[in-house]
Amino acid sequence: xxxxxxxxxxxxxKTEFKVGKRVVHAVNGxxxxxxRGKILCIVGESGCGxxxxxxxxxxxxxxxxxxxxxxxxxxxxxxxxxxxxSSYSRNSKKIRxxxxxxxxxxxxxxxxxxNPVYTVGRQIMEMLLKHERISKKEAxxxxxxxxxxxxxxxxxxxxxxxxxEFSGGMKQRIMVAIAMICNPDILIADEPxxxxxxxxxxxILDLIRKMQQEHGTSVIFITHNMGVVAEIADDVAVxxxxxxxxxxxxxxxxxxxxxxxxxxxxxxxxxxxMDKARALDTIEGTTPDASTVFHGCExxxxxxxxxxxxxxRFPIDTIIEDGHRVRCLLFEEGEQNAE
Length: 339
Prior knowledge:
This protein is an alpha/beta fold and 339 residues long. Helix content is 31%, strand content 24%. It has twelve helices and twelve strands. The two termini are 33 Å apart. It has helices spanning 50-57, 93-98, 110-113, 120-131, 136-149, 155-158, 168-180, 198-215, 226-232, 250-255, 260-267, 329-332; strands at 6-19, 22-35, 39-43, 65-74, 83-84, 103-106, 186-190, 218-223, 235-240, 243-249, 317-321, 324-327. Among the domains are: 111-183, no CATH class; 262-332, no CATH class.
C-alpha cells in the first residue's frame, strides 16, 4: 500500500486557557493527520474543543490561551522539511506569512468577521495584496474571476457594495472568496453553514467541494452536523471534551461506528423515511465543564456501556482496521462487540 501524502500532522496537541485561578483544558492531547487534497471533518458537540483545535493550528487563540504541549507540522509541497507551526509565537512574521496565504480560514459568523465600513471588494483585495506582489488591476481581475466561480451574480456591482447589502448566504460566499483568493494549500472551515438555512447550506458545501476539487486544496471542516459530514468528508475525527474518541474514513465511521459516543451521535440523526412516531435518540446528561479534572474516560458519566474501570483509567487509541481508531476501554479489554 502506497504511503499517504500528509500536508498537516497534529500530534498530542494540548491547548489551555487561564480563566482566573482555573485552567481550562480545551484541547487535551489531540492527534490527527490531514491528507493532501482531502477533506477531514472534525465533528462533536458545541464546546468539545473543535474550534480551539483549529485556532491553535494558526495561533489564533485568545490572549489567555496558549499551546501547552504537542506539535503542529505543516508540510508545504516541495519543501525539504515541515514548518512546526506550534513553535511560532502568535504575532511572529512566520505565522502571519502563512495565515491567509498557505492556510486560510472561513469563520462561522460573517457578520462579525466582515468589516461593515469597507466594500467587500476592498476586503478581498487586502488579502491578495498582503500576500502577493501584484498590481491592483491584476488583483481586481482575479477577484472578478473568483466571484464568478463562486456564482455571485453581477460581480462588477457586488465588488463595490458593503456587507450589509448582502444576504447571509452571499456574505458566506464572500468569506469563501477571501479565504480562497490566494489559493491556499489548506482551507479551514469553522462551522461555515451553521447560521444558514438548509438550501443555502447545501450551496455553500457544494462551493467548498468544487473549490477543493479544482485547486487540490486540503480542507479541515468543523461541524456538529453528522449530515454535513456524510455529504462532504473523506475522513472523520469525532471529538468529545477536548479529545478525539474515534477517527477513520467516512465510510469506516458511518458504516461501522465503534465508540459509544459516535454511536449515540449517529442514532440522534433524523433519517428520511423513518417512523414519524419514533422519537430521535438523545445522549443522556450534559457536557461537563471544560475545567473538570477527570481520572478516567470523559464520556463515562453519559455512557451506557461504562464499567468501573472507565471512571478510573484513561483509554488509549486502539486500531480497529487500517486508518480506523477508537479511544475506548471496551476495545482495550477485547470487548469490541459490546452492544
